[in-house]
What we know:
There is one protein chain. With 421 residues, the protein is an all-beta fold. It has one domain (18-413): Neuraminidase (6 Propeller), CATH 2.120.10.10. The chain has strands at 18-19, 30-39, 43-51, 57-64, 69-70, 79-80, 88-95, 101-108, 121-128, 133-134, 142-143, 158-163, 168-174, 179-184, 189-190, 197-198, 205-213, 219-226, 235-241, 246-247, 255-256, 266-274, 279-289, 292-301, 306-308, 315-316, 326-330, 336-345, 348-356, 371-372, 380-387, 393-401, 406-413. Strands 2, 3, 4, 5 and 6 form a 5-stranded antiparallel β-sheet that branches. A hairpin with a 4-residue loop joins strand 9 and strand 10. It is globular and about 50 Å long. The relative contact order is 0.13.
Amino acid sequence: MVQRQPIFPGNGFHTAANRLGSESLTTSSKSYSYDIDLMTGRKPCVIWSHEATGAQQQIRFACWNGTKWAGLANPNGFDQISSSPKAKLYPFLAIDAYDTPHVIWHEYANVTVPYGHTPPTEIKYANWNGSSWSGYSGQGPDTISLPGKYANVTSRPSDITINNATNRPGVVWADKDSVYYRAWNGSQWSGIFANADYVTYAPGEHHSPQLAYDYNGKPQVAWQHTPYLNSPVNDIYFSHLGPSSWKGKNGQGPDVVSSGTGSTTNHEPELVVIGGWNVPAIAWRSTNYQNKPSILFRRWDPQSQTWKGFGSSVDKVNGNKGAGALSMDVSVSMTVGIAWTAPTGNADSKVWFKQWTGGTTWKGMTGNAAQLVSRNVSNSMDPKLVMDDFGLPQVTWTHFIPTAAMSEVYFTHWKNWSQGQ
């Protein structure tokens, strides 16, 4: 991601968050699976998948222009990026240094999403070229995934990130048996060593890949590894680009980042590179760390040549809160933020936030306790977080309304600062 600046002055999270696309949401429609990034001019931009009544899912995009949410092609509403009569889910967004949005999504062979979100799906790509949404081919969206190498659909089946060294996008995806990497090299989509690089070494199933670039433009990838189908054990793996192959920091196969934590059920890694240190950091969800659901964190320590937390061998970020889906980002000032979902009882859930700004502890915005992000919005889940240049968070999440069988995408931001406006 390219981190930018926040948009509003004031104090605290919004007590009432803004609904995206609310003009088209009804009791029989759904908006879900989404991502957020920031442009200059203090503008958050959000992409999401929207399902209208009796129609397939389509990909929509909007930015905050200072007074309302609006598209780039449509100043009076959202942009609809996709148009094919096929189901589309899991859009991901990255904005480059020139404020060009780059988008990927999963497009199903079926018109509607099959039960269980089963493959096959293709990964499609488009960017805003100043007048329309299109791939680099100029003939509609590009297809990133390879023939026969369909993306495995999990909770986060792919990722797109801008390489700041080249200002071009890179993409990773998983098809159960492997994790693939491709990037735009100026003339075509390609891996480093092949048409698409095979990142993984270990046998088994691979899910939820995440992509980041270090300051030298070298790609880093983290993913969830399962040794065999329906295995009760899941670990978090990491590889980065070496001189002639993909390998872990250990110089051989992929690193097992979750090793030695005592947790055997590790899911959905989030990967960033901490700027001034130029080191990768990974957060993930465990369902049995110390016999409790936990948000865990480790970063590569060049001095000890090990993966470790800031305060111990592994940091438990969520404290006494529960642990569900999470999102992590880092600002240029090296503030690391994590937002996550936690159940609150009565079949409800909330979104919480903690940050690391130095030292050995994770804190909220106003003290050591985790900060409640979703406030009075019930059934809040699946947050997506971006940290701005001031080290301040902006968050989107899904608000699910079970009685109406609908869901909406909400946005909020922290605005407790008094300078830089």
